[in-house]
Amino acid sequence: MPPTHLPPRHPSDTTTDSTALRLPAEDVSVPRARHALDRWLRERGASPDLREQAALVISELATNAVKHTDSSWIVCAATSSPYGGVQVEVHDDDSGSRSPCRRTPTAEKEGGRGLHIVEALAESWGATASAVTRGNVVWARLQD
């Protein structure tokens, strides 16, 4: 079970290097978020492996926010830190404030694997009420 609060920053994490992008809660926003995050990480010298993992995680989290909330917009954000990792976040504007839940994937259904993928790639992940929107933020911390 994921934690229900944002994790504390790493003790050596004094950076404020972050980015955020507000997007409509539409399918077309998922690749926009993925490409913006990849460009931001590339500009910071992130490894290809970290960039690939972060792109997959932001895609899964943004897809979940678009498909499973009543949001009209989402905020995709990332914060890098000197210990070589990145925290990726997707804030939804779901007035129902439903928490994300892992589904049991089946061979017949295409969906239901997103949070399992996030859990497999992330050092840690979780969800809590967003300080940016009226909904939730789902976050994942990735280590390079």
Automatic annotation (TrEMBL):
<keyword id="KW-0723">Serine/threonine-protein kinase</keyword>
<dbReference type="InterPro" id="IPR050267">
    <property type="entry name" value="Anti-sigma-factor_SerPK"/>
</dbReference>
<feature type="region of interest" description="Disordered">
    <location>
        <begin position="1"/>
        <end position="27"/>
    </location>
</feature>
<dbReference type="GO" id="GO:0005524">
    <property type="term" value="F:ATP binding"/>
</dbReference>
<keyword id="KW-0418">Kinase</keyword>
<dbReference type="InterPro" id="IPR036890">
    <property type="entry name" value="HATPase_C_sf"/>
</dbReference>
<dbReference type="InterPro" id="IPR003594">
    <property type="entry name" value="HATPase_dom"/>
</dbReference>
<feature type="domain" description="Histidine kinase/HSP90-like ATPase">
    <location>
        <begin position="23"/>
        <end position="141"/>
    </location>
</feature>
<keyword id="KW-0808">Transferase</keyword>
<dbReference type="Pfam" id="PF13581">
    <property type="entry name" value="HATPase_c_2"/>
</dbReference>
<keyword id="KW-0547">Nucleotide-binding</keyword>
<protein>
    <submittedName>
        <fullName>ATP-binding protein</fullName>
    </submittedName>
</protein>
<keyword id="KW-0067">ATP-binding</keyword>
<feature type="region of interest" description="Disordered">
    <location>
        <begin position="90"/>
        <end position="111"/>
    </location>
</feature>
